[in-house]
Design brief:
Length: 184
Amino acid sequence: MVFVLNTRLSQNLKETLISASGCLLGVLMSITVCCITLLFLSNLQTIFIKLVNLFGIIYLFIMGIKHLKYKSKQINHDNSSEYKTRENFFINGFFIAISNPKTLLFIISFFPQFINPNSSILSQYSILIFTFVVCEFSWMLIYIWGGEKIKVLIKKPKFFYLFNKIIGTFFILFSISLISLSLT
């Protein structure tokens, strides 16, 4: 998401849409592989899934703390184009998405909460993947079309500082709610 926002702040709409398409394909592939892995592992040991889930929750909490302690006062929005061609925008977006461990950890910590082992697990994961991709796409569109409008705000150190505090607090509260759900 930050990549899409950065691209929007430094490039035109077409390059940003191409970058977002690469990101979306990468996210789709990542979560599909992650869900297939979870499907396979859920047949092996439920304790393993609970441990992986706990690891994801701890990671979310740590990410929240990092955002709360983040020192930078502004986002990087360099106007130089390091990608040059449209294919490079797509490829770069794709590789950024598939190499992002946060997406995988989010899926591992979040998706198992919604799986009913007594129903078709494959169809449940398919619905979760579809829902996640639609949400991801929607947020990318918001970042793309809103990026130009909030460019002035993001340059203000106070806004960026507050933005990080809000995101950090959200991650911490989300991890606490996940841990409380897993204890019930």
